[in-house]
């Protein structure tokens, strides 16, 4: 089952404790319903309610995530609304990544994401073609030179 969000509308100014958004939910290429959150800390609403149950069949198969803070750990089970929230976060990361890569070189170093100052398109092309760019930046990876999906994984991990 492939779950996607399309026509995502996000409001940064209205996002207080959670993302304020509206989106269409597609499963295996077919629009099945919508999701929205008012951004004030409440759960994401999935409509129609039957779609919530359909997504739950998928999220029940996802292993729980364990988060560790110092000597404390917390286990979170996947739920339909938390899964949709993760898709929204990933879409926002992708938007930010693509926007930044237009004028900056993004790179990783020790599992953190860094970016250069703004460059012109001509200067970006010269720098990205340089065989010594990784050495000069002391970078593990240059995100601009990777496929978007791979760069997004590194970018999202570095933003966590």
Salient structural properties:
four-stranded antiparallel β-sheet, alpha+beta, 9 strands, 160 residues, 5 helices, globular, three-stranded antiparallel β-sheet
Topology:
Layout: E1 3-11, E2 20-27, E3 30-38, E4 45-47, H1 49-59, E5 65-69, E6 72-76, H2 80-101, E7 106-109, E8 112-115, H3 121-129, H4 133-137, E9 141-142, H5 148-159
User: Judging from the principal axes of the Cα atoms, what is the shape?
Assistant: globular
With strands numbered from the N-terminus, the spatial order across the biggest sheet is 1-2-3-4
Distance between the termini: 26 Å
Q: Care to count the β-strands? A: 9
- What does the largest sheet look like? 4 strands, antiparallel
Question: In angstroms, what is the radius of gyration?
Answer: 19 Å
Mean pLDDT across every amino acid position: 94
Structure annotation, total helices? 5
Content of β-strand: 25-35%
Describe this entry's structure for a reader.
The chain is α+β, with helices and mostly antiparallel strands. Helices cover 37% and strands 31% of the residues. The chain has helices spanning 49-59, 80-101, 121-129, 133-137, 148-159; strands at residues 3-11, 20-27, 30-38, 45-47, 65-69, 72-76, 106-109, 112-115, 141-142. A 4-stranded antiparallel beta sheet has the order 1-2-3-4. Strands 8-7-9 form a 3-stranded antiparallel beta sheet. It is globular, with a radius of gyration of 19 Å.
Summarize the structure.
By secondary structure, the protein is α+β, with helices and mostly antiparallel strands. 37% of the residues lie in helices and 31% in strands. It is built from 5 helices and 9 strands.
